[in-house]
Amino acid sequence: MTRTVHGLLLAAASTLAVSGGAHAQGVEISISCGAVGLELTLCQEGANAWAEETGNTVQVVSTPNSSTDRLALYQQILSAQGGDIDVYQIDVIWPGILGSHFVDLAPHIEQETIDQHFDAIIQNNTIDGELKAMPWFTDAGILYYRSDLLEEYGLEVPETWAELTNAAQTIMEGEREGGNDRFWGYVWQGRAYEGLTCNALEWIDSFGGGTIVADDGSITVNNPAAVAAVDLAASWVGTISPTGVLNYDEEGARGVFQSGNAAFMRNWPYAWALAQSDDSPVKGKVGVAVLPRGEAEGGKHTGTLGGWQLAVSNYSDNQEEAIDLVRYLTSYEEQKRRAIEGSYNPTIEALYEDEEVLEAVPFFGSLKDTFVNAVARPSRIAGDRYNEVSSAFWNAVHSTLSGSGDAAANLDALETELIRLSRGGRW
Ligand code: GLC
After folding, report:
1. Do 134 and 222 fall into the same domain?
2. Minimal-distance CA residue to ligand 1 atom 6
3. What's residue 14's pLDDT?
4. Whole-model pTM above 0.85?
5. Ligand 1 center from residue 66 Cα (angstroms)
6. Could you report the per-residue pLDDT of 53-79, keeping only the tens digit for each?
7. How many domains does the chain have?
8. How far does residue 314's CA lie from ligand 1's centre (Å)?
9. Which of 268, 338, 344 maximizes ligand 1 atoms within 8 Å of its Cβ, making it the mutation to test the pocket?
10. Which of 16, 91, 149, 219 has the smallest set of CB atoms within 10 Å of its CB?
11. CA of 43 to the centre of ligand 1 (A)
12. CATH code, domain carrying 221
């Protein structure tokens, strides 16, 4: 059963009146899942399999696609201490923001099982010594390209952003001359939300311009490499990227690319399974590579670290069953199924050597370093103020992309704002 967000909010409003009723078996567990691409279907299938195995029932609650909107919804429900949702799918950047509402899973999940997962993600999910969530899938930004068109135009997979800009321009001009006036060079996520923070961190880090806030808490975003990176991205809007990119999220970009109307796309790995599905117009014509690097000294290939975890609410009446569902969904077998069917990156390292996984998603092998070394957003240092940091950052970038001020002016103002927010870098 899938409940809508609207229904959920109504339920959240009446939450405080709901009382216990936990039984040892045959309980109903509610889990919030994302609905980007195949997410909801895969979550529903996994949850149903657990329900069948245990004799419980599961209600899957679909949440907004935008990570930013989802956070606002969760904060609303959790701050009312609502027990409507037992298991929360949470973003890799949220343990510091939401962790106080979640059960410490470490005493309930075997150490051997925890040790199967990438240690960096376990550390990320550990707040004050408590494991607030189990890793479910990891993410990193990657470059999708039309292999057929690169071949047709005699182009290589771009190594640098300048090469990408030129290749996108060449293919776009050619395709438009050939009659497709809706064809674009490069699509990505330019809307003012968390996804833009991910894209812009990639530009800046790939130019050697740091990570907005350094690990020691100092504000580093106002530097020449970062300015050059954001100005370059602004130059794409209305040239190789449609102005509509300023409102694209992941699915917006995928819609254009998968319908055959773009040469390149920045997205997460989930887009692979969909681009390769039987009804995809670009099936068999897509390649995946690491994102380009900046040309100047210090430039490097990089991708932003993303990913989702499963957490159990402190306010759940059925914590034992909820923990069991988390154990099931984050297991080797379930992560393997999700990797093969939906190209969701496992957080269990051994799955990167599983032949069936590598056959379904070859780049899990070839780009493993990109996933392991992905650049983290400054969520650990910013803690519960991360969302304010990120929204100040994406707004400064979005203004620049929209032509309201250049990167030098906007990143300078951002620096002042972040210094204030961090109380002088002391957080
Ligand atoms: C993906 C990532 C997540 C990120 C979001 C931004 O879902 O896994 O970490 O915050 O995209 O749109």
Report:
1. no
2. 195
3. 36
4. yes
5. 8
6. 999 999 999 999 999 999 999 999 999
7. 2
8. 24
9. 268
10. 16
11. 17
12. 3.40.190.10
